[in-house]
């Protein structure tokens, strides 16, 4: 059998809207098969993965907590990916934002005023943006591949955080545990509805960031510039836009938002720095960005779906005894299916019998 | 065995997986395909190799299984990017994320299990030579494979007709297609070769370097291998030089950690990653050289018209 | 259809060959017969289906219907290798060469043998000497000129010892003198008994050399003829199917009083890539009311010159480019547009327009600074209604045919997109217009419309600079022609003095004095 792609004259609006749903359905099907192989009932497993976490108020709060960093980071990545800048180091920018945001509460624990919270958020944003500007600078100045440089900086950031919390920033009253002191109350991002659960104001920031960037990308000249440079750099130059400035813009925005996500996670959900503060949010956000079709509003929905897979993994481990590592398999599969389904937007697929096996192997 | 000899030996062990993975990616990229999933294929090789070896007791079977796993995983990438013409960068990332997740799940039962080490092969007489003896003639089998692989790839690319065809596809898939060269088929083969090499490199980690299964044990080596290909400007012998340079850096920092010096171990551990960035900057500074060497259709989508 | 004995003697008989792309019937039941030792012309407009037809003959496209008979046997040619095996060779219009490989390696790739490269290089040298096509087999294709690249294609083809050679628009990249040499080679091949299928839209050369002609229009065969018995205009009418509006060029109101609107002074630019051409001390003045043409073989610095004038690449000194009396050398493209200049690059998709953006967005692409007040509201918000209105205006004036209300640029045919891009700039009434290859790949009707629009713009007082490889076009629209060769620009030659021969010599690298001498001698 050979698979033949036929280019559509226009991209299909129908499949632009449908493709994330088809991908999600295919992921569920593949997940069901996976559970069957593991000897679990597919329906029960999928129920505990994707329905159970939605049945209780407190777990809806947890959903928001998990979705917050995913949405914040992915919204920034949508600017990067649309402008053809491959920042895959958001995990590192997340960590650095968490570190710079923690400078005040950790080093000046007695400095307790109301304006500490806004300051640490700004510090977090700035730290992430500064860390993101490194691969941007290297790309602009030396033509260095940003994929590799931004990724290498993730490992560096992880090791740096590990050193900080085991060394200079370790809590002096902490019985030698590798963690910083707890944030004081002025440095804590408050909960939205303290009575019912843990969801903090970071979630509101995430929604606001998505709204602002949606407007920017879809309605303004800046958004036009992002799209144009991303699709055809030469046409972008012909329009009078600078691709170098765009590289900085994309990395500063996405790095900043990742940094904000980092400090929000530490200040809102954890309350202190530890050697590991992220279960790979920076990488999962790549999946979120693509599942949301690089549209900030789509990303909000996609962020909730991926957050659900984290919670579902924990739920399924408790109720069925399957490893919570299956969650990451789900996430990986989802991205595969999303990318495969996006083909339908630009091509019609024709299956035929092979006269020549070009296209299959 | 002298200290120098021991250090050189460990450098070779650290360099071998980088060399093999980079050599596979070099062939893939020479055909015009950018597969960023090396890390994912490598870790799939590592977990499969370990699981099969520890279940059957045969490290050789483990190695074969790792190669097959890497190749199978690369086919997934091939199907998406070559048949469905998806974005190669995004698909490569997806392959890495899936590999890291999938290996974690598969390997869960093997954490802490004793490993099976692929034994060294001492070539009689030669391995007793001073200094170079153990280093060159008393190594693990994958070491020998890595050297043969380098020579083989160098010969294939620049002295064989099939290698010329592969390079032509990487230079211009339009022209190649017009001449009747089977662009997609060649790229599938190149992608699978890259997958097999990554799988083998992973097997080296879990059957020789560490002989254990640790989640995420590739620790960015797949990415460093990708950087090595750029560093080597797509030339096999330069990949070998680069791999040994990186092996030296990572072994050097390990020894520095052991000796103390009062430098925090985490900062030393980050040296290989920082070195990667420095090397990339140095090599990419020269735009002209980069343009001359990069396969011209690298990463470009191709839909044959029929 | 009964097979006559004459048809049986033919080398190639094609019957009912059909190819469909989506809804477009590119070839519709095409018949074609080629005898032994004949040069057969395949004529047709851009988009008539010529390239599709020969790609099917060469096995790179699969016919939907029809038969191909080769030396009396029905054959199915499903790969280029099979075509070569039968004895069909092809010289592509857009060369199928590999820039990073040597000439010999390029040749080896189409020979289906295991002959060592050194042997192939030797053979290539022999053939190149035998046919007067000088070539160093070990040179890198990326370093070669367009003419040399074509030689590789031809030698590659000859080494396969074909019975039928297909040449797709071979002279479009050559100087008139190089084209003459090519004709000699082709006539020699015919005398050796080989057959040639010659695709062209240049009627003079077809009349001069071809024994038979088949004319295609909209994918259908509309006639067979002996081109020697036809006139250029009768052939043109067959190709186009109707009278094409003639381009009218009223006398230039040029007087010495006309002010210089675009001035280039001592412009130099180093090469910015391994295969790019440096610009060497270029001087040029275009006055209001005038169309100046720049001729030249592809790859002699025209693209680099365009980028330098447009401001996509800025100069080292402000005075190197002056637009309407202002030193613009250090200004970017947007600032140069604000001075009244407009630019149309050679590449339509990916340079002049973004393929996946809609027409309204592609309008914004070139006009967002000059028409900021109309198209961009406070806070950088794009005014879509204004863009839609302006797009409609341009579409109506330029007669852009489109299938949707606001389609993506890639959904338009080449000619229609070019009309839109030119219209987008004309809509501003620019004082300086710089166009690179205005009608490349555009059908005759659209080309005539575009050329007339450029002349009209000039006559309204603007300065128009046309860079083109198409000499017919330049002679049609220009008041004077300069020639680019290897990064140098010649003195402009007034159109009254210019001939194909003189311009051709300059394109080949001759100096001004030699040209007047050679032309005087002939």
Can you tell me about this structure?
The complex is a heterotrimer of chains A (361), B (306) and C (522). Chain A has 361 residues and is mostly helical. Chain A folds into two domains: 1-40 and 323-361, no CATH class; 67-321, ABC transporter involved in vitamin B12 uptake, BtuC, CATH 1.10.3470. Chain A has helices spanning 13-37, 42-50, 57-82, 90-107, 116-142, 146-166, 202-219, 221-231, 233-238, 243-270, 281-291, 296-320, 326-346; strands at residues 2-7, 347-352. Chain A has a two-stranded antiparallel ribbon. Chain B is mostly helical and 306 residues long. Chain B has a single domain (3-293), classed as ABC transporter involved in vitamin B12 uptake, BtuC (Orthogonal Bundle), CATH 1.10.3470. The longest helix of chain B is centred in the first third of the chain and has 28 residues, at 3-30. Chain B is globular, with a radius of gyration of 19 Å. Chain C has a domain at 261-354 and 430-521: Rossmann fold (3-Layer(aba) Sandwich). Chain C has helices at residues 5-9, 50-57, 80-86, 103-108, 117-130, 146-159, 176-191, 203-209, 232-240, 302-310, 333-338, 359-367, 372-375, 384-398, 414-426, 444-459, 471-477, 500-507, 512-521; strands spanning 12-21, 24-34, 39-44, 65-70, 73-75, 88-91, 164-168, 195-200, 212-217, 220-225, 260-269, 279-287, 291-295, 321-323, 326-327, 341-344, 432-436, 463-467, 480-485, 488-489, 493-494. Chain C is globular, with a radius of gyration of 24 Å. The relative contact order of chain C is 0.10. Chains in contact: A-B, A-C, B-C. At the A-B interface, strand 1, helix 6, helix 11 and helix 13 of A face helix 3, helix 4, helix 9, helix 10 and helix 12 of B.
């Amino acid at each position: 059998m050979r698979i033949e792609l036929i280019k559509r004259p226009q991209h299909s609006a129908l499949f632009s809207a449908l493709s994330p749903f088809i991908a999600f359905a295919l992921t569920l099907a593949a997940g069901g098969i996976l559970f069957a192989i593991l000897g679990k009932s597919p329906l029960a497993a999928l129920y505990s993965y994707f329905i159970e976490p939605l049945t209780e108020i407190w777990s809806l709060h947890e959903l928001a907590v998990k979705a917050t960093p995913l949405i914040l980071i992915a919204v920034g990545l949508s600017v990067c990916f649309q402008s053809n800048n491959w920042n895959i180091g958001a995990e590192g920018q997340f960590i650095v934002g968490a570190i710079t945001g923690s400078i005040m509460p950790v080093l000046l624990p007695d400095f307790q005023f109301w304006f500490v919270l806004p300051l640490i958020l700004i510090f977090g944003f700035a730290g992430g943006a500064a860390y993101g500007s490194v691969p941007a600078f290297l790309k602009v100045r030396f033509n260095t591949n940003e994929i590799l440089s931004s990724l290498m900086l993730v490992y560096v950031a992880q090791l740096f955080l590990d050193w900080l919390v085991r060394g200079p920033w370790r809590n002096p009253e902490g019985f030698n545990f590798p963690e910083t002191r707890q944030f004081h109350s002025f440095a804590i991002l408050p909960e939205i509805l303290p009575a019912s659960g843990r969801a903090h104001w970071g979630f509101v920031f995430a929604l606001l960031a998505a709204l602002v960037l949606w407007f920017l990308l879809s309605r303004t000249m800046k958004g036009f510039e992002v799209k144009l440079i991303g699709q055809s750099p030469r046409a972008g130059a012909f329009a009078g836009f600078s691709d170098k400035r765009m590289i900085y813009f994309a990395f500063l925005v996405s790095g900043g938002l990742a940094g904000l996500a980092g400090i929000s996670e530490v200040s809102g959900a954890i309350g202190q720095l530890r050697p590991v503060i992220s279960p790979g949010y920076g990488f999962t956000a790549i999946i979120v960005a693509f599942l949301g079709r690089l549209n900030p509003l789509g990303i909000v929905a996609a962020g909730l779906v991926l957050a659900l897979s984290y919670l579902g993994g924990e739920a399924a481990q408790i109720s069925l005894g399957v490893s919570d590592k299956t969650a990451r398999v789900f996430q990986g599969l989802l991205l595969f299916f999303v990318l495969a389904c996006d083909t339908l937007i630009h091509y019609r697929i024709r299956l035929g019998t092979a006269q020549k096996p070009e296209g299959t192997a | 065995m002298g200290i120098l000899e021991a250090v050189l030996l460990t450098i070779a062990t650290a360099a071998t997986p980088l060399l093999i993975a980079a050599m596979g990616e070099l062939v893939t990229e020479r055909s015009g395909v950018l597969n960023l999933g090396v890390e994912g294929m490598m870790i799939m090789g590592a977990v499969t190799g370990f699981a099969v070896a520890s279940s059957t007791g045969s490290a050789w079977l483990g190695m074969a299984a790792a190669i097959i796993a890497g190749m199978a995983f690369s086919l997934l990438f091939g199907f998406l990017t070559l048949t469905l013409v998806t974005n190669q960068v995004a698909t490569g990332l997806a392959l890495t994320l899936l590999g890291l997740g999938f290996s974690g799940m598969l390997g869960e039962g093997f954490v802490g299990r004793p490993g099976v080490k692929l034994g060294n092969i001492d070539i009689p007489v030669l391995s007793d030579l001073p200094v170079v003896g153990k280093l060159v003639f008393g190594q693990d089998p994958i070491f020998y494979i890595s050297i043969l692989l380098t020579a083989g790839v160098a010969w294939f690319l620049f002295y064989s007709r099939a290698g010329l065809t592969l390079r032509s596809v990487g230079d211009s898939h339009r022209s190649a297609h017009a001449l009747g060269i089977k662009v997609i088929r060649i790229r599938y083969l190149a992608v699978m070769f890259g997958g097999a090499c990554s799988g083998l490199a992973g097997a080296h980690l879990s059957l020789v370097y560490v002989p254990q299964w640790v989640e995420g044990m590739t620790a960015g080596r797949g990415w460093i291998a990708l950087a090595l290909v750029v560093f080597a400007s797509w030339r096999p012998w330069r990949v070998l030089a680069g791999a040994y340079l990186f092996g030296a850096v990572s072994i050097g920092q390990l020894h520095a950690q052991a000796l103390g010096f009062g430098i925090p171990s985490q900062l030393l551990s980050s040296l290989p990653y920082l070195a990667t960035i420095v090397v990339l900057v140095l090599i990419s500074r020269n735009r002209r050289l980069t343009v001359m060497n990069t396969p011209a259709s690298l990463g470009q989508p191709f839909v044959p018209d029929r | 259809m009964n097979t006559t004995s004459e048809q049986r003697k033919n080398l190639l008989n094609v019957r009912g060959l059909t190819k469909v792309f989506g809804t477009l019937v590119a070839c519709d039941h095409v018949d074609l017969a080629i005898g032994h030792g004949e040069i057969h012309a395949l004529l047709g407009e851009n988009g008539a289906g010529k390239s599709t037809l020969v790609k099917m003959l060469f096995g790179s496209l699969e016919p939907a219907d029809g038969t191909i008979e080769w030396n009396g046997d029905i054959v199915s040619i499903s790969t280029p290798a099979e075509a070569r095996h039968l004895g069909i060779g092809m010289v592509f219009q857009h060369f199928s060469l590999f820039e990073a490989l040597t000439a010999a390696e390029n040749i080896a790739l189409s020979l289906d043998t295991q002959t060592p490269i050194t042997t192939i290089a030797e053979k290539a040298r022999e053939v190149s000497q035998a046919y007067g096509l000088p070539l160093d087999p070990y040179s890198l294709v990326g370093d070669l000129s367009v003419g040399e690249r074509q030689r590789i294609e031809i030698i590659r083809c000859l080494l396969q010892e074909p019975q039928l050679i297909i040449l797709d628009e071979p002279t479009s990249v050559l100087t008139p003198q190089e084209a003459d040499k090519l004709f000699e080679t082709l006539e020699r091949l015919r005398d050796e008994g080989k057959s040639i299928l010659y695709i062209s839209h240049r009627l003079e050369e077809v009349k001069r050399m071809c024994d038979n002609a088949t004319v295609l229009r909209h994918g259908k065969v509309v006639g067979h003829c002996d081109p020697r018995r036809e006139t250029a205009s009768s052939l043109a009418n067959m190709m186009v199917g109707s009278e094409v509006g003639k381009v009218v060029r009223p006398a230039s109101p040029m007087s010495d009083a006309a002010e210089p609107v675009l001035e280039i002074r001592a412009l130099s630019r180093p090469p910015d890539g391994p295969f790019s051409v440096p610009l060497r001390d270029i001087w040029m003045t275009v006055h209001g009311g005038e169309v100046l043409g720049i001729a030249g073989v592809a790859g002699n610095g025209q693209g680099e010159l365009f980028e330098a004038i447009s401001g996509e690449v800025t100069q080292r000194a402000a005075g190197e480019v002056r637009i309407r009396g202002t030193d613009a050398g250090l200004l970017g493209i947007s600032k140069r547009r604000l001075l009244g200049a407009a630019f149309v690059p050679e590449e339509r998709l990916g340079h002049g327009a973004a393929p996946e953006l809609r027409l309204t967005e592609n309008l914004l692409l070139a006009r967002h600074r000059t028409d900021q007040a109309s198209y961009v509201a406070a806070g950088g918000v794009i005014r879509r209604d204004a863009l839609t209105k302006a797009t409609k205006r341009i579409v109506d004036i330029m007669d852009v045919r489109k299938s949707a209300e606001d389609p993506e640029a890639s959904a338009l045919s080449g000619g229609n997109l070019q009309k839109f891009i030119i219209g987008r700039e004309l809509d501003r009434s620019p004082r300086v217009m710089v166009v690179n290859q205005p009608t490349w790949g555009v059908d005759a009707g659209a080309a005539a419309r575009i050329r007339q629009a450029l002349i009209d713009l000039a006559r309204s007082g603007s300065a128009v600079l046309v860079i083109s490889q198409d000499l017919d076009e330049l002679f049609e629209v220009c008041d004077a022609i300069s020639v680019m060769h290897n990064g140098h620009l010649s003195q402009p030659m007034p159109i009254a003095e210019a001939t194909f021969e003189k311009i051709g010599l300059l394109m080949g690298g001759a100096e001004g004095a030699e040209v007047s001498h050679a032309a005087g001698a002939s």
